[in-house]
Amino acid sequence: MAGRPRGVDDSVILRAAAEVIGRVGPTGLTLAAVADEVGLVPGTLVQRFGSKRGLLVALARQSAHEAQAHHERLRQGRPSPLAALVALAEESMALMDTPERFANHLAFLCMDLTDPQLHEYALVIHETQRRAILALLDEAVTEGELRIGTDTAALAGSVQALIAGTGLTWALDRQDTLPERLRRAVTALLSPHARSKEMS
After folding, report:
1. What is the largest CA-CA distance in the chain?
2. Nearest to residue 49, comparing CAs of 68, 30, 75?
3. Domain coordinates in residue numbering, the chain
4. Which residues bind DNA (predicted)?
5. Are 11 and 62 in contact (CB under 8 A)?
6. How high is the mean pLDDT in each 10-residue block of the chain (200 residues)?
7. Helix axes 31-38, 52-75, angle to 10 degrees
8. Which DSSP string corresponds to the chain?
9. What phi, psi does 194 have (nearest 5°)?
10. Residue 107 C-beta-side C-alpha neighbours within 13 Å
11. Cα 184 from Cα 181, distance rounded (Å)
12. CA 182, CA 191: separation in Å to the nearest integer?
């Protein structure tokens, strides 16, 4: 197979890397597998990223850089801030649609926790998500979906913890789909603070 070093954008390669991680985990990831996914030769990926670690760092960097714009897109076209918040919860786990894929992406997160460079980008993603959640909660108060006086800062932390915990619980008990579980969990958490029970 002939490589096309200038025919495939880096962002396409990095999305393919995320897909391969979902299938085999970060330890099973190889440049050859990613290259095959996008129709390149492994040598092209070596030229662009240097190594498997270089590819993983590039994936983490791109995810961090795109996080804010991604959250902003979720608000567009949604009927309310709380509907956008539910969508944010669902989208944050979109790559983890089976317990096996969840486990493989969780293994990548474990690398983030022990590798200083990867941790830097993971922390950016984490903090960007929290700011997006807080902004949607504040907007929900302003628009009358949540009660005036709601402690949105504390609630934002609870929402973020709930998203992570729901994913792990679902991967263990495997009941329903992850989007369904996230929607129910977020709705239940916000319900006591809501002026209206309608969040979608």
Report:
1. 62
2. 30
3. 10-193
4. 30-49
5. yes
6. 60 94 94 94 92 94 89 84 94 91 93 93 95 96 96 97 96 94 96 70
7. 50
8. ----TTTS-HHHHHHHHHHHHHHHHHHH--HHHHHHHHT--HHHHHHHHSSHHHHHHHHHHHHHHHHHHHHHHHHTT-SSHHHHHHHHHHHHTTT--SHHHHHHHHHHHHHHHH-HHHHHHHHHHHHHHHHHHHHHHHHHHHTTSB-TT--HHHHHHHHHHHHHHHHHHHHHH--S-HHHHHHHHHHHHHGGGBSSS---
9. -90, 145
10. 16
11. 5
12. 14
**Which residues are paired to 153 by β-bridges?**
none
Phi and psi torsions of 126, nearest 5°: -60, -50
Q: Which amino acid is at 113?
A: L
- 10-193 topology per CATH: Tetracycline Repressor; domain 2 (1.10.357)
Say whether pTM exceeds 0.85. yes
Map tokens 């996080």 to a residue. Answer: 67
